[in-house]
Design a protein that fits this description.
Strand content: 25-35%
Largest sheet: 7 strands, mixed
Order of helices and strands: HHHEEHEHEEHEEEEHHHEEEEEE
Strand order of the largest sheet: 3-4-5-9-8-7-6
Distance between the termini: 54 Å
Number of strands: 15
Bound molecules: biotinyl-5-AMP
Number of helices: 9
Radius of gyration: 22 Å
Length: 332
């Protein structure tokens, strides 16, 4: 955090502490050790960010409301993480947060840098599929990580991310998420979250990983595009509530940081266990579709490297790295 930002955060803290009364420009200037004109400039910046601040001559300043809208400031305010999101880049509109994340990572952005947009015009899924990113109603976010891992282990980060988002949905939103291998989270059978992990690596070393996550939060039913409305849903539709997007993002970042640290320290087994508690259950029947084939198999678990364990069409045990999977439903 640079000096400007930390002064601004202190200023917001001071206004928050004094929110029921006026605090004089002089008092703020004494406490923050900056001039009164610097205070005034910060106030103007905060107003631009959507903070509503009342200024009265001879009384001072009073904060009336915090902005709903996302910005680097509002996202960082109250964020309880050590390293994740210490740098947040927020855009109202962007092509894809993945593109900017790659660019910033190539330019040396730190481990834990977060890119967030209110709207994406070219949100992307896997294999160049489109990801619909409604303005202001979802979380469209990419995280840059620089893990000291062998490149083949990066898929574990997708599964880790899925467990983090499932935890957030279960604990904070109080809905029952199901993870569909490898990267979807469903609620009541409909997709609410998509995860896209991309990586730049050398043979035995990851340079960086970008984990993109798209979460449908506040879309009402009629705002999900027609072509996917039968298979997609949002937290709003499922819970009947509107969610504070900023709060959900902070909760995600806090949960992610904890789970990531524990994964780096203890390895994949914990993630695997958690994943299996939200994902397919061992022994369940699943439908598998690959480029060449479609068949039904028993779900045998996930391998240490994150691959899906199933039987192939001939009944032999196999590891799958890329396939479309669905729960087998009676009558399908
Ligand atoms: C994914 O791909 O599910 C990964 C989506 C990742 C999106 C995030 S948003 C932040 C970051 N920036 C980006 O540009 N991307 C990441 P995949 O498994 O390929 O699923 C894509 C399919 O999901 C599409 O073909 C649609 O059928 C469906 N879909 C598209 N938009 C959706 C939405 N908003 N909600 C639910 N399903 C959607």
């Amino acid at each position: 955090m640079d000096k400007m930002e930390s002064t601004r955060n202190k200023l917001i803290a001071l206004l928050e502490e004094n929110k029921d009364q006026y605090i004089s420009g002089q008092k703020m200037s004494d406490q923050l050790n900056i001039s009164r004109s610097a205070i005034w400039k910060h106030m103007k910046e905060l107003e631009k960010d959507g903070y509503e601040i009342e200024g009265k001559s001879r009384k001072g300043y009073r904060i009336i409301s915090f902005p709903d809208k996302l910005s680097e400031n509002t996202l960082q305010w109250g964020l309880r993480t050590k390293w994740l999101g210490k740098t947040i880049v927020h855009r109202e509109i962007i092509d894809s947060t993945q593109f900017l994340a790659h660019q910033l990572a190539r330019e040396g952005a730190a481990h834990g840098t977060v890119i967030i947009a209110d709207e994406q015009t070219k949100g992307k899924g896997r294999m160049n599929r489109a990801w619909h990113s409604a303005p202001g109603h979802g979380i469209w976010m990419s995280i840059i990580l620089r893990p000291q891992l062998l490149p083949y282990l990066a898929t574990q980060l997708t599964l880790l991310t899925a467990t983090v988002l499932a935890d957030v949905i279960a604990e904070h939103i109080e809905l029952r998420p199901q993870i569909k291998w490898p990267n979807d989270i469903l609620i009541n059978g409909k997709k609410t979250v998509g995860i896209l992990t991309e990586m730049q690596s050398e043979q035995d070393q990851i340079q960086y990983v970008v984990i993109g996550m798209g979460i449908n939060v506040n879309q009402p039913t009629n705002e999900l595009p027609n072509d996917i409305s039968y298979k997609a849903t949002s937290l709003n539709v499922e819970s009947g509530k509107e969610w504070d997007i900023k709060e959900v993002i902070q909760y995600i970042l806090q949960t992610f940081e904890k789970s990531y640290e524990s994964y780096i320290e203890n390895g994949f087994p914990e993630v695997k266990k958690k994943w299996e508690s939200y994902g397919f259950k061992i022994g369940e029947m699943i439908d598998i579709k690959t480029m060449q084939n479609a068949w039904r198999s028993e779900f045998l678990g996930i391998a240490e490297d994150g691959a899906l364990l199933a039987t192939d069409p001939d009944g032999n045990e196999t590891k799958l790295y890329s396939a479309e999977i669905a729960w087998f439903k009676e009558g399908n």
